[in-house]
TrEMBL record:
Gene designation per UniProt: ACO2
Species this protein is from: Propithecus coquereli (Coquerel's sifaka)
GO biological process: citrate metabolic process; tricarboxylic acid cycle
Protein name from the UniProt record: Aconitate hydratase, mitochondrial
Domain of life: Eukaryota
Function summary: Catalyzes the isomerization of citrate to isocitrate via cis-aconitate.
Keywords recorded for this protein, A-Z: 4Fe-4S, Iron, Iron-sulfur, Lyase, Metal-binding, Mitochondrion, Transit peptide
Repressor found in the keyword field: no
GO cellular component: cytosol; mitochondrial matrix
InterPro entries, A to Z: Acnase/IPM_dHydase_lsu_aba_1/3, Acoase/IPM_deHydtase_lsu_aba, Aconitase/3IPM_dehydase_swvl, Aconitase/IPM_isomerase, Aconitase_4Fe-4S_BS, Aconitase_4Fe-4S_dom, Aconitase_dom2, AconitaseA/IPMdHydase_ssu_swvl
Molecular function GO labels: 4 iron, 4 sulfur cluster binding; aconitate hydratase activity; iron ion binding
Region described as Disordered: 543-575
Coiled coil regions in record: none
Compositionally biased tracts (Polar residues): 566-575
Enzyme category, top tier: lyase
């Protein structure tokens, strides 16, 4: 019996019910943009009939958004899908280039609901209010550009201070079954509310905003089956820290991670709505994945394993959260449609991982990579053995991964116990609320004051130190030190631009406990602290309400609606601006093979987008391509001398900074290439890591493997991301060689290109280079960029 027919009665019933229902808006900010569960269902039924098998949840949502479900070829890990996302979200650092590209397209309005969120340009210095005022002053030109561009082209604008993009999306825009793309790698946060939310580069966002079908390689699906229940100090953060240790930073590449199993719906958190706020920390018993910090946290940090995104099935916790955030109508509609918001029984996963939550211990990952996992009970011993500093200089909680109401409540519960015994944090301690709504609510409910009393500083509702926006004063650059955070990434220099900072990521409550103790040697499960009275005491595992017992306090209104009539709206970019620069089209392919490419740098080891295009102080140039190109690859290690930002100029034979050498080559008409290692371009979605090499004259990036978003970004800008057919060929190429890439006149999907390595002694070697280009992407290359191709099609 065909699988589609087996579900036919239920599907017909749902369809008939939906036809009778009133339309439900995707967001109260866009009352005329409706959730199309009817279209989702129609597309799912078409694809299910074609495939004749049970579908995973990931497949239902992705295939439910196909542009042509009847004819689209569907094969996991093989075919490219043409999709119609429901909406676009952009943070202010990436929105600058995305909007500049959209302006270049010549289109009058965005075709789908879109928003801009100001969260990346606020530097942490002394505290929330002062830091926010300073950011508004310093970034006035950029904020004005984004606000006016949003008004001109129909994009909603969240002002600085509103909060971190992913928390705002969670509170207002994510819903079960949505397909959302965002210009930030942690967009998968929305999977905690049952949506497929995918991080992309700005050029991908421009495609969607222009109404063009968005292309995505059909993802594989990794299933993570959760059993048992969390208890004690174990938290949802430990689930993803454990998964990261299993899959590593590249194990999720090309796949959606889909969580399922009885552990998802296990016993709820102790805190229930109704009654007074807790006045003391309570012992934590068994608990499930409370929505706020649980499922969203796990999906958010899935970016660290290279996953396309992560998702949880619709359940009662999502319904509760939707209702609490003013979206009860969406919850009711999702209830009616629930069969399509959970995986089919008997569906197949390409890989299956099982985690027993009852056996999961608190973890802390790091330093320098988010997949180096240690049980908290063991990290002190490992640190001693490895020579990592034991003393914790700073503990930092918040970020888009762990900044919800429940996160703040659990940390406050730990802090309150210390205060009751006369203790404060031995380490410096900072707190970053996820949104203005979270900030206002934790102020009202007393959590913020408890965290201040224990020694904390409440920072602005922004990304702050998590992305390197931290004016750190307690150490000098090069000073070896340890910090612990509830963030998601801990790459070298990520938080404070100091390569000697050993950063560890863990849950907010563990960060708080370690900041109180001041050392990595402290294990809150077993170790005692000494109170002010000299008596020893042990911290009890914290508990806190998943959601506030009364309604959220929305705080200040920070949203700007785009006007209905924007015909008179001006968007000004000064030609003398050092922050913004209108884009010029990249040159088209000249129809010839790429001859005698100079190697700018052969990268040794890990090379993230932070290494390629650093954040921190460079964020201010995200809207000015030429200025930000001065940070090109300054963090990458040159295999020739083992140094960062030091490469040989092949003409002068002098060593100098990477950007200066690239500019020299560009000035003298020398085309160049980068040689990279494994998982090149992992980390943030920043397309500047693709725009900068293109701007300075690169033609190809050749590596052992790529991270998904970066590979796509390179293609979008007309570059050739190529991989060694034999990874060992990486060792055949030396920085002094020249390369010729042949076969571009016959460039076709699945057909390798030939690379001739020309050594200085006159000898040559030939190797093969693979690629993942499809026909559309080959057209991008020939046109010079995806944007150039879009303009060609318009004409």
């Amino acid at each position: 019996k065909p699988y589609s027919k087996a579900l036919g009665v239920r599907q017909y019933h749902v369809a008939s019910v939906l036809c009778q229902r009133a339309k439900v808006a995707m967001s109260h900010f866009e009352p005329n943009e409706y959730i199309r569960y009817d279209l989702l269902e129609k597309n799912i039924n078409i694809v299910r009939k074609r495939l004749n098998r049970p579908l995973t949840l990931s497949e239902k949502i992705v295939y439910g958004h196909l542009d042509d479900p009847a004819n689209q070829e569907v094969e996991r890990g093989k075919t490219y899908l043409r999709l119609r996302p429901d909406r676009v979200a952009m943070q202010d650092a990436t929105a600058q280039m995305a909007m500049l590209q959209f302006i270049s397209s010549g289109l009058p309005k965005v075709a789908v609901p879109s928003t801009i969120h100001c969260d990346h340009l606020i530097e942490a210095q002394v505290g929330g209010e002062k830091d926010l005022r300073r950011a508004k002053d310093i970034n006035q030109e950029v904020y004005n550009f984004l606000a006016t561009a949003g008004a001109k082209y129909g994009v909603g604008f969240w002002r600085p201070g509103s909060g971190i993009i992913h928390q705002i999306i969670l509170e207002n825009y994510a819903y079960p079954g949505v397909l959302l793309i965002g210009t930030d790698s942690h967009t998968p946060n929305g999977g905690g509310l049952g949506g497929i939310c995918i991080g992309v580069g700005g050029a991908d966002a421009v495609d969607v905003m222009a109404g063009i079908p968005w292309e995505l390689k059909c993802p594989k699906v990794i299933g993570v089956k959760l059993t048992g229940s969390l208890s004690g100090w174990s938290s949802p953060k430990d689930v993803i820290l454990k998964v990261a240790s299993i899959l590593t930073v590249k194990g999720g590449t090309g796949a959606i991670v889909e969580y399922h199993g009885p552990g998802v719906d296990s016993i709820s958190c102790t805190g229930e709505e109704g009654g007074p706020q807790p006045t003391l920390a309570l012992p934590r018993g068994s608990h499930g994945l409370c929505f706020s910090t649980g499922m969203a946290t796990i999906c958010n940090m899935g970016a660290e394993i290279g996953a396309t995104t992560s998702v949880f099935p619709y359940n009662h916790r999502m319904k509760k959260y939707l209702s609490k955030t003013g979206r009860a109508e969406i919850a009711s509609l999702a209830d009616e449609f629930k069969d399509h918001l959970v995986p089919d029984p008997g569906c197949h996963y390409d890989q299956l991982i099982e985690i027993n939550l009852s056996e999961l211990k608190p973890h802390i990952n790091g330093p320098f990579t988010p997949d180096l996992a240690h049980p908290v009970a063991e990290v002190g011993t490992v640190a001693e053995k490895e020579g990592w500093p034991l003393d914790i200089r700073v503990g930092l909680i918040g970020s888009c991964t762990n900044s919800s109401y429940e996160d703040m409540g659990r940390s406050a519960a730990v802090a309150k116990q210390a205060l009751a015994h006369g203790l404060k944090c031995k380490s410096q301690f900072t707190i970053t609320p996820g949104s203005e709504q979270i900030r206002a609510t934790i102020e009202r409910d007393g959590y913020a004051q408890i965290l201040r009393d224990v020694g904390g500083i409440v920072l602005a509702n922004a990304c702050g130190p998590c992305i390197g926006q931290w004016d750190r004063k307690d150490i000098k650059k090069g000073e070896k030190n340890t910090i612990v955070t509830s963030y998601n990434r801990n790459f070298t220099g990520r938080n404070d631009a100091n390569p000697e900072t050993h950063a560890f990521v863990t849950s907010p409550e563990i960060v708080t406990a370690l900041a109180i103790a001041g050392t990595l040697k402290f294990n809150p499960e077993t170790d005692f602290l000494t109170g002010k009275d000299g008596k020893k005491f042990k911290l009890e595992a914290p508990d806190a309400d998943e959601l506030p017992r009364v309604e959220f306090d929305p705080g200040q209104d920070t949203y700007q609606h785009p006007p209905k009539d924007s015909s008179g709206q001006r968007v000004d970019v000064s030609p003398t601006s050092q922050r913004l620069q209108l884009l010029e089209p990249f040159d088209k392919w000249d129809g010839k093979d790429l001859e005698d490419l100079q190697i700018l740098i052969k990268v040794k080891g890990k090379c993230t987008t932070d290494h390629i295009s650093a954040a921190g102080p460079w964020l201010k140039f995200r809207g000015h391509l030429d200025n930000i190109s001065n940070n090109l690859l300054i963090g990458a290690i040159n295999i020739e001398n083992g140094k960062a930002n030091s490469v040989r100029n092949a003409v002068t034979q002098e060593f100098g900074p990477v950007p200066d050498t690239a500019r020299y080559y560009k000035k003298h008409g020398i085309k160049w290439v980068v040689i990279g290692d494994e998982n090149y371009g992992e980390g943030s979605s920043r397309e500047h890591a693709a725009l900068e090499p293109r701007h300075l004259g690169a033609r190809a990036i050749i590596t052992k493997s790529f991270a998904r978003i970066h590979e796509t970004n390179l293609k979008k800008q007309g570059l050739l991301p190529l991989t060694f057919a034999d990874p060992a060929d990486y060792n055949k190429i030396h920085p002094v060689d020249k390369l010729t890439i042949q076969g571009l006149n016959d460039f076709a999907p699945g057909k390798p290109l030939k690379c001739i390595i020309k050594h200085p002694n006159g000898t040559q070697e030939t190797i093969l280079l693979n690629h993942t280009f499809n026909e559309t992407q080959i057209e991008w290359f020939r046109a010079g960029s995806a944007l150039n191709r879009m303009k060609e099609l318009q004409h």
